[in-house]
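Problem statement: downstream parser choked on a complex file, so we are re-checking the raw output for the hypoxanthine run. The parser issue turned out to be on our end (a line-ending mismatch), but while we're here, posting the original submission so the record is complete.
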Amino acid sequence: MSTHIKDNAYFAKTVLMPGDPLRAKYIAENFLTDYKEVTSVRGIYGYTGKTKEGKEISVMASGMGIPSIGIYSYELYTCYGVENIIRIGTCGSYQEECRVGDVILATSASSNSNYASQFDLKGGVISPCSDFSLLLKAYNHAKEMNIPVHVGPIFSSDIFYDADKDYYKKFQALGVLGVEMESYGLFLNAMRLHKKALCILTVSDTFVGKEKDLTQEERQTKLNEMFKLALSMAD
Ligand code: HPA
C-alpha cells in the first residue's frame, strides 16, 4: 500500500506524530491501552490503541526534518485513511515570553525549505497553517486542563546548525515564536490533500533568554503535559 509504512497497518483517524520513534513507543507504553505496534519500517514505530477515555488513537514517529515528515504524513493521509495528524515536538524559543517548558500551539509555519516549489506558484508564496478546528479544540482543552499556551507563528528550519548565528533575529523581529524542523511540510501536505494538521510544541531551548535547556528529567515531565493535551484530541 505504501512505501515506508507497513502494508495493511491499521491507523486511527487521528495520529499523533513525535519526531522520535522512541517517543512514540513511550507514549504507547505509558498512555495507551489495548495498543498494538502497527509498523516499524526503518525503525519508525507506529502504534494504534485507545486513550484512557476509550477513544481510538495512533501514534507514529515522523523522523527529523521536512523531507521525512513529508513522506510519512503523505502516506498516512493517502494510504491509511488518516484525517488528522498532530505533530508533537520540541522547539527553540525566539521570544522571551516563550520560556523553556512552555507549550506553543502553532498557527502557521514559515520556512527556508523549498518544499512548496513542487506547486510551481509562479513567484507566489503559500503560507502553510494549522487547521482551525483542531487549533481551537486544542486551545479549549488546554484551558480546561490548566495548561498555559502561546498561540502563534513558528519557523520550520531546514538547518539546525546554522552558519549564521544571527539568522533567528529576523524571525524574532517579525514575532515568530520559535523554531522546529517539520511543521511546514506537514501543514502543506494537509492543505494539498484537504486533510487536517496541527502542531503542538514544548519549548526545549531558547535563543533569547538566559534559561538553561530542559534537562532529560524536566523534558519528560514537561513533555508528558503536552502528550496529555495531544491525547485529549482523540475523537
Ligand atoms: N532548532 C531547530 N529545531 C529545534 C530546536 C532548535 O533550536 N529545538 C528543538 N527543535
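For whoever reads this later: Strands lie at 14-17, 33-39, 46-50, 56-60, 84-93, 103-111, 149-156, 178-180, 196-206.
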